[in-house]
């Protein structure tokens, strides 16, 4: 059992609390530790807490919807973004570049310079490239913002509606959504000057300005629903005896297409292989992603091991950066002690 280990992380102030799941073959351990909230008052955490997934939205929603478009032959990886978004400035950037974070788009934007959703989107379109397309790999929210725009245009529906119809409903992720109604069920994130205690409202400021829905952030979910998503991937795209995504596309998620100057390797949408996040014990056939608010999703397809961590490490302040330094040690600890699941 890993509960005591995660309780120690709470005592070390890595996060106020967390919900976690560890999967190995057909064994599963799920747990909840610590506090859901610290301010304005302490609230005990529970297993049903909804967490702001932040950038896990990219792989949970946008990457899956882009994959669906690929399966349906509505797009190709080499298609130019300008084909679908004529206002896009750059002729040589493709869907592949956005998915692998090799487009050259700047990592982030100063959202405080804009005052409305329309102004923010216009701001995105007018950003200069940070580096020459295809020469490096630098993670950028803008890549998945634009992918979200493409998905909405080609399907003719808002991203949150598409996410429900094509992902959450078929995967029976009944507690997963954008803009949750029951904000009390949500773990609060940062305490800000502008918004006070951010709770049940997306923390990412750009997505907040886009009414809580974007291709880069905005989804809230609980540990049970994330387990369903992960099991689908471990089962090569199958839900029971029904195919949800063709295995060949999941293989592309895990294919090491590009490597940045910082040695970060990217597949389609996902980080791939050993890294400062996944530790040293995973296989090369591992995909992973994190979320700024305190989330980690690691799926080792070869060893049939998965680790899900949902936390609000930025509550009450984003100055808490302990998790970034602890992630690889946490994952290595899990690998070294994975047999505890089988013996419990």
Work out the helicity level: 25-40%
Shape: globular
Work out the radius of gyration.
19 Å
Largest sheet: 7 strands, antiparallel
Number of strands: 16
Number of helices: 12
Cα end-to-end separation: 6 Å
Q: How does this structure look, described?
A:
The chain has 344 residues and is of the alpha+beta class. It is built from 12 helices and 16 strands. A 7-stranded antiparallel β-sheet has the order 3-2-1-16-15-14-13, with helices on both faces. Strands 4-8-5 form a 3-stranded antiparallel β-sheet. Helix 2 (56-71) packs across helix 6 and helix 2 packs across helix 7 (159-168). It is globular, with a radius of gyration of 19 Å.
List the main descriptive attributes of the protein structure presented here.
344 residues, alpha+beta, 3-stranded antiparallel beta sheet
Map the helices and strands.
Layout lengths: L2 H9 L5 E8 L2 E11 L5 E2 L6 E2 L3 H16 L9 H4 L10 H5 L17 H9 L15 H15 L3 H10 L8 E2 L12 E2 L3 E2 L7 H5 L9 E3 L1 H12 L3 E2 L2 E2 L3 H7 L4 E2 L5 E2 L4 E2 L13 E6 L3 E6 L4 E7 L10 H15 L2 H5 L1
Antiparallel strand pairs: 1-2, 1-16, 2-3, 4-8, 5-8, 6-7, 9-10, 11-12, 13-14, 14-15, 15-16
Helix pairs in contact: 2-6, 2-7
Task: Describe this structure in a few short sentences.
The chain is built from 12 helices and 16 strands. With 344 residues, the chain is an alpha+beta fold.
């Amino acid at each position: 059992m890993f509960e005591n280990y995660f309780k120690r992380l709470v005592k070390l102030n890595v996060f106020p609390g967390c919900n976690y799941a560890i999967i190995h073959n057909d064994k599963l351990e799920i747990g909840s530790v610590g506090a859901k909230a610290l301010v304005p008052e302490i609230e005990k955490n529970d297993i049903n807490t909804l967490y702001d997934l932040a950038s896990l939205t990219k792989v949970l929603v946008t990457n899956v919807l882009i994959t669906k478009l690929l399966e349906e032959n509505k797009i190709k990886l080499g298609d130019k973004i300008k084909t679908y978004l004529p206002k896009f400035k750059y002729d040589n950037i493709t869907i592949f570049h956005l998915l692998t974070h090799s487009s050259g788009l700047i990592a982030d934007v100063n959202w405080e310079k804009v005052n409305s959703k329309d102004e923010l989107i216009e701001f995105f379109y007018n950003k200069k490239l940070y580096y020459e397309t295809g020469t490096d790999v630098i993670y950028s929210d803008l890549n998945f913002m634009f992918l979200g725009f493409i998905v909405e245009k080609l399907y003719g529906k808002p991203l949150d509606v598409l996410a429900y119809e094509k992902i959450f409903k078929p995967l029976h992720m009944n507690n997963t959504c954008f803009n949750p109604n029951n904000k009390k069920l949500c773990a609060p994130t940062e305490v800000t000057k502008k918004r006070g205690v951010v709770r049940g409202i997306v923390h990412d400021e750009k997505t907040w300005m886009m009414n809580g829905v974007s291709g880069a952030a905005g989804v809230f979910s609980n540990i049970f629903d994330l387990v369903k998503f992960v099991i689908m991937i471990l089962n090569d795209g199958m839900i029971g005896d029904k195919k949800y995504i063709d295995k060949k596309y999941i293989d592309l998620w895990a294919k090491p297409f590009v490597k940045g100057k910082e040695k970060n390797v990217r597949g389609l949408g996902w980080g791939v292989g050993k890294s400062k996040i996944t530790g040293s014990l995973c296989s090369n056939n591992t995909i992973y992603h994190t979320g700024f608010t305190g989330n980690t999703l690691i799926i080792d397809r070869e060893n049939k091991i998965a680790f899900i961590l949902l936390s609000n490490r930025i509550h009450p302040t984003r100055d808490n950066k302990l998790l970034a330094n602890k992630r690889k040690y946490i994952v290595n600890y899990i690998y070294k002690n994975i047999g505890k699941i089988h013996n419990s």
